[in-house]
Amino acid sequence: NYSVAVAARTLTEEVQNELALNANYALRGFSFPLLGIDLKNDVEFSLITSYRASSRRTFLLGERPGQAQQSTNGTEVDGRRSILIEPRARYTLSRLVTATAFFRYNGEFTTGASNPGFSVTEVGVELRISISGGR
Question: Which of 79, 80, 83, 101 is nearest to 92 (CA)?
């Protein structure tokens, strides 16, 4: 996107880019003998990644007296880049026990802005056990 400010003699360029990748793999119903019992198991792997970038630059339109020469790339006013990476694994043991593990990294990085960037790293494990019985 471009916008022109005639009074200030500037041209502003706004650019946004995004790239995302999702991948999944599942292996279902494979046998794994444990303590003499043949159990049916499932394994799933997934990966989520994304990259987003946005920037805003200004360009001078014409000469102004007493102003320094500007490069042809303009002046970056502000910009933001974000990265997300999340691999996840899930194992199901005969539909009774399910274990999930994940790692998640989320980073926001700024340029030319007064707000600093940040990053968050999360690690998690979830275990579910189904117990049923009767008389």
Answer: 101
The 3-state DSSP class for residue 102 equals strand
Task: Determine the distance from the C-alpha atom of residue 130 to the mean position of all C-alpha atoms in its chain, rounded to a whole number.
Answer: 33
Distance CA 95, CA 130 (A): 8
Q: Specify whether the CB–CB gap between 80 and 53 falls below 8 A.
A: yes
Alpha-carbon torsion (83, 89, 95, 98), positive or negative: negative
pLDDT of 121 reads: 96
Q: CA-based angle 18:23:25, to the nearest 5?
A: 175
85-51-78 Cα angle (round to 5)? 130
Average pLDDT over residues 25-29: 92
Domain boundaries, the chain: 2-129
53/14 Cα distance (integer angstroms): 11
Q: Specify the pairing of strand 37-60 against strand 118-129.
A: unpaired
